[in-house]
Amino acid sequence: MAGEKNAGLVLLSSSMSPFGQRCSIALAEKGLTHEYVEEDLGAKSDLLLHSNPIYKQIPVLLHGGRTIIESLIIVQYLDEAFPGTRSLLPADPYERARARFWADYVDKKVYGCASRLYMVKGQPQVLPKLEMVDILKTLEGELGGKEFFGGEQGFGFVDVALMPFATWFESFDRCWGVGVAEVAPTLAAWAAQCMERESVSKSLCSPKEVYDFIDEMRKDLGIE
């Protein structure tokens, strides 16, 4: 049934984008085949610029000629547009609201804080380093004793939202001395378990690729 419904799905993304990786994980979890288009963000395609004229960013999902943008919106759209596939969001309205809150937390806190760390060196790193430690502990507290953030539902919306950033964990340690295994061991174990899922392992870059990318970016910015 999914094979009939997913005709015309095209994902415009970049292999290094954690936001695009979310969409790839969601598509794989739902068993939805699609065309993948790798975007050169230094020379964005006309298709990307036409599909997302407001932000001109990836990821973009095209479905039957219609455009959906923003990664968390794309994942929610896939849940709603393909009800015959495995749901990533909980059915209960309250639990759905909680899942959306924590996915938003990932974007505002994990990505937001990491982005600030990437842009500084020396003493200015101290406050964002302390903030990142607090963020990781907060996420570990939310995970609690559950196998996945999705709880009884299993691997779900928050797991999809956070997992691409788990490949950044090694860089947190190598660049800034924030060892996730020491700060939030349950969260580190969760990440290792998620990597065993085919949908995850085939969608993500390796931690080394992420570190090399960050290192090169910082050099280009004159930070290292």
User: Looking across the biggest beta sheet, what order are the strands in?
Assistant: 2-1-3-4
- What is the name of the CATH class of the largest domain? Mainly Alpha
Structural class: alpha+beta
What CATH architecture label of the largest domain applies? Up-down Bundle
Radius of gyration: 18 Å
Number of domains: 2
What integer is the average pLDDT?
Answer: 92
- Number of E-state strands: 4
Estimate the global geometry from the Cα principal axes: globular
Terminal residue distance = 52 Å
Report on this model:
57% of the residues lie in helices and 8% in strands. With 224 residues, it is an alpha+beta fold. It folds into 2 domains: 2-81, Glutaredoxin (3-Layer(aba) Sandwich); 93-220, Glutathione S-transferase Yfyf (Class Pi), Chain A, domain 2 (Up-down Bundle). It has a 4-stranded mixed sheet, with helices on one face. 34% of the residues are buried.
List the helices and strands and how they pair.
Elements: H1 2-5, E1 9-13, H2 18-29, E2 35-38, H3 46-51, E3 60-63, E4 66-69, H4 71-81, H5 93-118, H6 126-143, H7 157-166, H8 169-176, H9 180-183, H10 185-194, H11 198-201, H12 207-220
Parallel strand pairs: 1-2
Antiparallel strand pairs: 1-3, 3-4
Write out key terms for the chains shown:
single chain; alpha+beta; Glutathione S-transferase Yfyf (Class Pi), Chain A, domain 2; globular; 4 strands; 224 residues; four-stranded mixed beta sheet
Brief rundown of the structure:
The chain is of the alpha+beta class and about 220 residues long. The chain has helices at about 1-5, 20-30, 45-50, 70-80, 95-120, 125-145, 155-165, 170-175, 180-185, 185-195, 200, 205-220; strands at about 10-15, 35-40, 60-65, 65-70.
